[in-house]
Every structure is written in structure tokens, then in C-alpha cells.
Amino acid sequence: MFGFIQNIGIPGLILILIVALIIFGPGKLPSVGKAMGESIHSFKKAVNSDDDEEPKKEIE
User: Fold this and answer.
1) In this structure, are residues 29 and 20 in contact, taking their beta carbons and an 8 Å threshold?
2) Cα separation, 30 vs 24, whole angstroms
């Protein structure tokens, strides 16, 4: 899913962190990270849910 992260490298990650720090500031950055983490968690949970599929029959 996040295979493009492997191609960024350390200098790219440092640049992204500096830009995020400039845009959001040091006070708001933890709350932005938490919100992103919760969003990714809920997205993964929705993708992996089996509610849309029919229940699997157990083989006896």
C-alpha cells in the first residue's frame, strides 16, 4: 500500500518533516499526527471488515 515510501529515502523524509513543522507548527503537529493515525486505522478497519461478505459456512 505504501510502497512509494521506500523510494523517498532519509533526505526526503527529513524534508517532509521540516515542511510539516513549518506549516502546522510544533504545537499542532502531534494532534495532526494523531488524527492521521486514527484515519488510517479506521480506513484499514473498514477495508478489512467482512461485514459485506456472506458468512462463511463451517465445514464439519
Assistant:
1) yes
2) 10
Alpha-carbon dihedral angle through residues 11, 17, 18, 19, given to the nearest 10 degrees: 110
The answer to whether residues 54 and 46 touch, using CB atoms and an 8 Å cutoff, is no
Rounded mean pLDDT of the chain? Answer: 80
Contact 21, 29 (CB under 8 A): yes
CA distance 49 to 53: 9
Confidence of residue 39 (pLDDT cuts 50, 70, 90): very high
Dihedral (CA of 18, 24, 28, 33) sign? negative
Inform me whether the pLDDT recorded for 4 exceeds 80: no
What's the pTM? 0.53
